Structure formats: C-alpha cells, structure tokens
Amino acid sequence: MKIRPEQLKSHLLKDLLPVYVISGDEPLLAQESADAVRHEARKQGFIGREVFHGDGNFDWGSLHNEANALSLFAEKKIIEVKIANGKPGDKGSKALCELCANPNPDNLLLIILPKLERGAQNSKWMKTLEALGAHIQVWPITGDQLPRWIKQRLLQSDINANQEAVEILAERVEGNLLAAVQEIEKLKLLATDGNVDAIKMSSVVADSARYNIFEFVDKILIGDAQSAARSLRGLHSEGTDAIPLLWAITRELRILVKASEQVSNGEQRDWALKNAGVWEKRLPLFRKALQRCSAAHLRMLLYQAGAIDRGIKGMRKADVWDEITTLVLSFAGSQTLRPSNIKLLIDH
Fold first, then answer.
1. What residues does 82 pair with on adjacent strands?
2. How far, in Å, are 4, 33, 114, 205 from residue 36 at the CA level?
3. Which of 3.20.20.20, 3.60.15.10, 3.40.50.300, 3.40.50.1000 would CATH assign to domain 2-137?
4. pLDDT beneath 50: ranges in the chain
5. Among candidate residues 3, 16, 66, the one with its CA nearest the CA of residue 46
6. Is 246 helix (H, G, I), strand (E, B) or coil?
7. How crowded is the C-beta side of 348, counted as CA atoms within 13 Å?
8. Cα separation of 104 and 130, whole Å?
9. pLDDT tens digits, one per residue of 142-199
10. CATH class of 146-206
C-alpha cells in the first residue's frame, strides 16, 4: 500500500506493518517520516535497531543473517536499510523479496531510498515490499505549496501568523524546509503571545547569525572556496550543529546530481535545474555549480556526504568537521577530494 506523509501518523496509531519504505529527495520530510515509524515501533517493543547501507559491495547475506538472528534478550528490533542510489541490484532485490516471503514477527523492516525512477517503482522488489507493508513517497514542497505548509507548521507550534507574515517566511527560506523549521523554532521562543504579524516576522528572520547557513551554501555554489571555508569556521565556532549544515549541503548536491543527469541526457540546463526544484532567482548560483562540477564529481561528493552522516551518527570513526571542510572545499572548486582518496573516507 502507499501512504502520503501527512497520513502516516494517523496510520501508525491504528496499525504497525512489518515493512515501511520511505523514498524521496526532501531530507526533512523523509527524516520525519522515518522518525515517526521508529518512534511507534519503539512504543510497540521494537527496542533494537540495526542499520545497513545497501550500496556498492554490501553483503546482502548479512541482512538475511541479521533478520534471522536470535537476540540474547529476545528483543524485537528495527532492521533499517539505506540504499543511497535507490538500486539494490539483483542480489539486493532477491534478498528483500526473500525477507518479505518469510517475515519475522520480531523484526520491522525500514527501507530508506531517494526519489525512485519509474523502473524501480514498478520493480518486483518494490511491489513485494508494498504488498507486505507501506510505501511513503516524499515529494518536494513546491513554491505554491510552501506558504500553506509553513502555515500548518506554525499552527502545530501554536503560532498564529497572518498571511503576510507567512509569505515573508516563505520568501526567506526559498524552499528550504529545514531552514523554515529552524525559523519556526526561533519564533516559538520570541513570539511569547503566540501571535506573529509581518513586522515581527520580518524582525525575526532578519535577526540571523553573523554566519548563516543560507549564505554559507551560496558561497559553495558560486565557487568561493575561501569564503565558504571561513563561513564554515564561523558556524562551527558559533556552536552550529553539524547535522543541519550537512543537510543543507546534501540537499543542493541531490538537486545538482539530478539536474546533471538530465543535462547528460540532452535536456537544456535551466529546464533541468527548474525540474530539480531550483527557484528562478537561484538559477545563477546553480548554473555556476553545474558548470564547475561534473556529474561524476557531484556523485562522489554525495557519497562523501553519506559517509560524514554515518560519522555524525557514530557508525564510523570520523573527524566530522575536518571531513565537512574537505567536502565544502571540493564542492566549491578546490580539488581536495578525488576518487583516489574518497574510498578511504567511505570505507572507514
């Protein structure tokens, strides 16, 4: 079955299926959907959690072994499989189908994927997963949808904002949902009476830190490596958490990877960027990045971002800030990261 993201919480209150698939390229919505599944699973006794990354040379046999392993404490567990390229391959497809053919009631299978191509959506392995569980497809919020989405999030935070205030915030974040959530968190602290008009919204969104994530990402896109590195140091020194920084970088990388693939297939560059979700006034920034970075280089950067994410979560030893610096410099045009050394970062 398929479930829209906004239906997921009500669904989970009624039923917890053995399989959940979350796909899409909007990091915040995908993360929130995965968190909702994990939260409800823990409430129902799925205390353990094992995470696998089904890419490259992953041993799909280890997934089968984990699914059938007996816990020392007989606890139920979540088996989470992240497939960054959305393609499990023949061995992975077979392994996923086998797990669905003989589901273990003590396991909940959570599959996390990027936006899927039509072939993957219609594949046997995906149909098998959907038949046993639920598929939550996360779609980007368009410019027309963003004010309504922001209004809903404000109401969920007990903030009553007029339409002009909502439009100001929508214009400020330019489609970046994580940034919108961060501004709403700020409003929760500053709007003590719960009411926000255009004047208050303007003052809040203008009162940003000296080094802000928006400007930081823009410097990367235009290829100003030195300035981007200074902004990164400033954000770090101000106590900015690594996760929103990495999300912001990864979001732009996913857009560029998608656009570069379309350009390589013969599409016009601006059309490809717009189709990937770039707003009109940000096209010049993305054009520069697309001119500077090859499709292969962008994919390499995206793999490195995934490795850093695992480092943040303690799944591999990493000096996270050093690796983010390397990623930023390479993305901005300083050739510090190449295929010859990225394998060392990803494999550890």
1. 53, 112
2. 13, 5, 18, 29
3. 3.40.50.300
4. 207-211, 337, 339-348
5. 16
6. helix
7. 13
8. 17
9. 878 899 999 999 998 889 999 999 988 888 777 778 878 888 888 888 877 888 888 8
10. mainly alpha
Whole-angstrom distance, CA of residue 26 vs CA of residue 252: 11
pLDDT for position 73: 59
Structure tokens at 217: 């990402």
Closest CA to 205 of 186, 177, 232: 186
Tokens of 55: 């890419």
Q: Exposed, middle or buried by CB within 10 Å (0-12, 13-18, 19+), for 278?
A: buried
Integer Cα distance of 140 and 68 in angstroms: 36
Determine contact, residues 324/311, Cβ cutoff 8 Å: no
Alpha-carbon torsion 39, 42, 48, 50, what sign?
negative
DSSP-based three-state secondary structure for 160: strand
- All structural domains of the chain with their residue ranges: 2-137, 146-206, 213-347
